[in-house]
Design a protein that fits this description.
A hairpin with a 2-residue loop joins strand 12 (314-318) and strand 13 (321-324). The protein contains 12 helices and 19 strands. It has 2 domains: 3-251 and 409-435, Alkaline Phosphatase, subunit A (3-Layer(aba) Sandwich); 252-406, no CATH class. It is globular. With 437 residues, it is an alpha/beta fold. The protein has a 9-stranded mixed beta sheet. The chain has a 4-stranded antiparallel beta sheet with strand order 12-13-15-14, with helices on one face. Helix 6 packs antiparallel against helix 7 and helix 6 packs parallel to helix 8. It binds zinc ion (ZN). Zinc ion (ZN) binds next to helix 7.
């Protein structure tokens, strides 16, 4: 049976491939020998949602994942999505069988609950497990493996250069873990995600790989040398199918918008009085403190007790995702099936109009299965505005003039040696699985 090796360098754009391969003198030429396609993630900018499409081969409205979390039984009650919640099975992760293993390093959504998996946490799930099986702890670099060196991005931004260095050190450790597993585990599938390029894009800015005058460049260069040796060994293995991909990239942040504030201004949403919103953010922060997951602005803010659901017909509790407060779907929903289509069209048209007044490129993608009865966590529609960061809490700093350096852009790339690849120049995350199936 063929062996599949997938490396993710999430956060890099297609134009950064040259800078990447220049810093990988040995393995870079192997990468450049692969076929290239742009990866177009549509309206998705969350790593979790794009990885859900990669892992299931199905779009967000099929697999049910459009962001880091989704409302459970109420728009005030969010849950973190993991693979067991997806409507479609993560088919190509189930390959591991007797005597063969899947090695999964730092991959969103994936649970450590199968005996055929070696799993290193990405820090996004509400568990404090870091390495499974736990026997790995006994030796080598796994003992102090940490998915992230800081608790959240707010902490990281307080000292960007110190935390950039910490990110490099923690990624270095992850490379050591990957090298050891690659050599010693009887794997048939090896999926390994590097998050350093994403972290540095937020902490240090764009084009980090082509900034030799940057103070941390020497540390970064050491890491790239380390990665180069590892990658050369991994990619030159005979008969291996390999894919190197970036699920998304970054652009300078040109503005902020709070969709819930816009919905409030349009009389589609009402906040609860501040005194009642006591739990806002509380639970998600607790989860994040345990896992050291980044409390990213595009990820896991909680809406708990923020929205007055008796007076709300639509809300955006997850970045870019809009749900209609349907009675049939949510326990405190108020929109009846009879009114649903009218409310849906009103909310959609209103948001498009108010966002288009402020920003040049507004894209709305409707959920074609939004009225389907089957269990599906996906929102009614999604909004994406290029270079704009979405906020959703009542008091979240979206009114302040300060802008983050960068924000996510749904454009990445794929490089591969897979022989069934038909050069299409552009592919979607759902097509990535087809390269090796
Ligand atoms: Zn990012």
């Amino acid at each position: 049976m063929s062996r599949n090796f997938i490396l993710s360098v999430d956060g890099l754009s297609p134009t950064e491939i040259g800078n990447l391969t220049r810093l990988l003198p040995k393995s870079g030429s192997l990468l450049e020998s692969g076929l290239f396609a742009k990866l177009d993630s549509g309206v998705l900018t969350s790593a979790t949602a794009i990885w859900a499409e990669i892992l299931t081969g199905k779009p967000w409205h099929h697999n049910g994942c459009a962001g880091y979390s989704a409302p459970n039984d109420s728009l005030n009650n969010l849950k973190v999505i993991n693979e067991d919640e997806l409507s479609d099975p993560t088919s190509w992760l189930l390959r591991g069988s007797e005597g063969e293993l899947d090695v999964l390093i730092n991959i969103p959504l994936v649970q450590p609950n199968k005996s055929t998996r070696i799993w290193l946490a990405d820090g996004s799930l509400p568990t404090n497990l870091r390495v499974v099986p736990r026997s790995l702890f006994e030796a080598g670099p796994f003992r102090d493996y940490e998915p992230r060196p800081y608790a959240d991005y707010a902490t990281a931004f307080s000292s960007p250069s110190k935390n950039s260095s910490a990110s490099i050190a923690s990624e270095m450790k992850r490379i050591d873990c990957a090298v050891q597993l690659h050599r010693t585990a009887a794997w048939s599938q090896f999926i390994w995600r590097i998050t350093l390029f994403d972290q540095l894009a937020h902490l240090a800015g764009l084009d980090i790989l082509s900034a030799p005058d940057l103070s941390l460049f020497d540390e970064l260069k050491l890491l790239m040398d380390h990665l180069d040796i590892a990658l050369y060994e991994m990619l030159s293995e005979p008969g291996i199918n390999w894919i190197v991909l970036s699920a998304f990239s970054h652009v300078p942040c040109g503005g902020k918008a709070n969709i819930n504030t816009l919905l409030k201004d349009g009389h589609f949403l009402r906040w609860l009085p501040a005194t009642q919103a006591v739990n806002a953010g509380g639970r998600q922060e607790a989860v994040s403190a345990i896992t050291k997951a980044p409390l990213a602005k595009h990820a896991n803010v909680s809406m708990e007790a923020c929205i007055d659901l008796k007076s709300t017909v639509a809300a955006s509790p997850v970045s870019g995702c809009i749900w209609i407060n349907r009675a049939e779907r949510f326990k405190d929903g108020i929109v009846s099936d009879a009114d649903y289509e009218i409310v849906y069209a009103d909310v959609r048209d209103y948001l498009w109009t108010v966002l288009s007044r402020r920003f040049a490129s507004v894209i709305i993608e409707e959920n074609p299965r939004r009225t389907a009865k089957e269990r599906n966590l996906s929102p009614d529609f999604m909004v994406w505005v290029e270079g704009v960061e979405f906020h959703n809490l009542p008091c979240d700093g979206s009114q302040s003039a300060h802008l983050p350096r960068t924000t996510h852009n749904p454009s990445g790339f794929v490089l591969t040696n897979c022989t069934n690849y038909k050069s299409e120049y552009k592919m979607t995350p759902t097509q990535v699985a087809g390269l090796i199936n």
